[in-house]
Structure formats: C-alpha cells, structure tokens
Amino acid sequence: MGVTTFKGGVHPYDGKALTMDQAIAELKPQGLMVFPLSQHIGAPAQPLVAKGDHVLMGQKIAEASGFISVPVISSVSGTVKSIEKKLTAGGAMIDAIVIENDQQYEAIEGFGTARDYTKLSREEIVSIVKEAGIVGLGGAGFPTYVKFSPKEIDKIDTFIVNGAECEPYLTSDYRDMMETPEKIIGGLKVILSLFPNAKGKICIEDNKPEAIKLLSEKLGNEPNIEVLSLKTKYPQGGERQLIYAVTGRKINSAMLPADAGVVVDNIDTVVSVYEAVCESKPLVRKIVTVTGDAIAKPGNFKVPLGTNYQEIIDAAGGFTEDPEKVICGGPMMGIPLFRLDVPVAKNSSSILALKHDPVSSLPTTACINCGRCVEACPENLVPTMLMKASLAKNTDRFAELFGLECIECGCCSYVCPAKRPLTQAFKEMKRRTRAAQKAAAAKKEVKK
Length: 448
Fold this sequence. Notes:
about 30% helix; alpha/beta; about 20% strand; five-stranded parallel beta sheet; single chain; 13 helices
C-alpha cells in the first residue's frame, strides 16, 4: 500500500482531535425546516408543492429543471408554510420551501426498503441516484448522476473514493469511515457496477490509520477495490491533487476528471448512493461537524437537511463565549457566517466557531517577494504575479498567468508572511475574468 501525494501544499494545524473520537449523534430538530431550491451546481429545482400542502419524509418537493440539476427531497413530514427567499450559508437570498415540521417523520411508501442492486440495470441505478437528489457532498454540489453518465463509460478505469478530508477541523467523513465502513464498500460496489473497466480506490490520509486499517480489514481480498494511504498534506483532498496523487494524471479547469478516465466522489456521497440504491432512502440527511474552541461540546451530528444552524450549535452545548469568527466549513476554504439563522444544505459540512480570529487581527503589509506562495501553490501558479494583475484588474493578464486554474485552496494566503488576501483577490478576479471572456465571446458572435 503506497503513500502518494502531490507537489506544493501546506501543513496547517488540523484541529481534528476536538471531534474525531466523537461518534455521530442523531439530531431531531424542532424548528421550521428550510429547503433552498439551489443546493447544487446547475439550474435551481422547481417546486412541486404549494403553501398548505402536507408532505412526507422522503417526498420530492422540487424537481430538477435541467440536465445539471437535481430534485429536492423533504427530510421531515409536515406542512408547507411558504415558498419564499431565504438566506443561505453562502450569504445569498435563494428561493426556498419552508416546512413546518410535525415531528412525526412519517415517510413515503417504500422508504427504507432493502433492494438488490445486482438486479437493477445501469439506467435504473443512475435514475435512482438522480431521483434521490444526490450531489457531491464534499462541498462542490455537482449532481452525482451526471458524473455517472460520462460520454465514454468504457474509458473510466479508476473510481476514487475521496477519504482524505484534508480540510482542518472536519471529521464527519472520518466518523463515517469508522461507523459505516460496510456502506462505503457497498456504495463503491454499486458504483463500480456502472463502470465495467474501473477499479475502486478508497483514498485516506495517513493521519487516519484506524480508518485505513478498518476499511482494509472489511475489504478482505476484494479484487477490484483497494485502500490507498495518502500523505497528510493540504489540499490532498482537492480533486486535481487527488487524481494526480493516485494516477499520475493531470487535469485542468477545461477538463473533467472523466477526461482522464477517472470519477471521484467523497465518502458521504458514496454512502448516500448505497442508501438510495440499496435501502431506498433518498438524500434527506447530512453529517455536520460542529467544532472549534468556542463550542462547548464539539461533535459530529447527523441532521435532517433544512435544519437551522442555531439548533445544531445548541445541540453541541452552544458557545462558551461569543466567537470572533464562525465559519461554514473549515478554516482554509470555508465561508464566514454573519448569521446563524441559515439551513443545512447538501453542501454543508461543518460549523467552526473560534474564540479569536487569528487572520483579521494581523496587519497586511507589502509583498517581500519571498516566494513562499509559489512554493506552496499546488497548481504551480505564481501568486505574486497574479496579485499584481488582480490589483490592476487586468483580466487579460490574469488569464495569461493561468489564474483561472486557481482552485482557491488558500495555501498562498496561509503561508504569506505579509498576510495579503491573495485567495480572496483571486476568487474575485476569476469571476471578473470569466465575465470579461463571456462578454468578449458574445460581442464576437454579434459581429458574425
């Protein structure tokens, strides 16, 4: 079992000790449930219910509205109170279905019924995954059934289960590996049945030896699946870094992993595939790590989608003191939260509450051209030059420097001794550059 990695990266404090030994606790929320219609990359789902309708747990309440779109499923039974714009963790106001939870959790017919995937066709399995509303649960939110439908199925030779969980503080995938290894292996077998030429690779960072050991033991002599130990380094779980570490193949922003013969899904996504296909359970829950030194009782919680963040924090004992910073996700790629009255969505992963914000309290100074950001960048970019283009708002130069290849991992900002907001600048500049390129293409099309 080899140890593999990639060039660049950093080694931040991982903070995982706070919750890695805390078993997943199930939470039954009391308040209103909010289901945003955009919990995935692609077109928003379209409502199938109206105010006053009674719904059941597992019921489809909004349907996919395009190829890159998925349904929204109710995680509770109750009454539709409204369809209105609601604030999400990302800071946007998004159309959402609000359901008054009746606390009965009355499910649709057949919910939880065992099913033998070997008796299902490829098309039936992909359809089940789509109708279950499954997306990439690592945060990206890309519809999973689309990943399972590449143009050239026979060219997929590797399916990677991303168990790196390299983002500091997060331990939900680790707990999944320790508590439900059979579902991970079972889900992977379902997925491999869709790709006749693929081998399965369960990839875990070597700071999780117990998970590596347990999954290896559970696998036994499975011929088409192996567990790979990855070097612990951030962002080892980044899709491009993971593919390179495992296969030696490189992809860029113009490619999909399938173009390199690879499909990647994270641990919880694979578990959700197993539950949808083998247990007839659509995606109605999320495992969320609640952690940080401002949390009284850090832990991992299985919560119904739509649960209010404040309820989960309360379940973790609340704050020990007012935190200076609360983040949705981890400290490297997470989004600062300014309100806790937001719902758990499919791309939620963690609530991180810190007593002190170690970044914003430090002054930003001039670049000293030390080169640390260049050394740390896993995409082999030159952040110092990208920052000059960003400050000048020069989208052409930013594109020439391959700025669109930035994966926004935060490594450059992390190592910068001048504490310059590099990642934030690149994120904004990528948006500007894409908009400029789109406008230029439209103008060119008009001239034709």
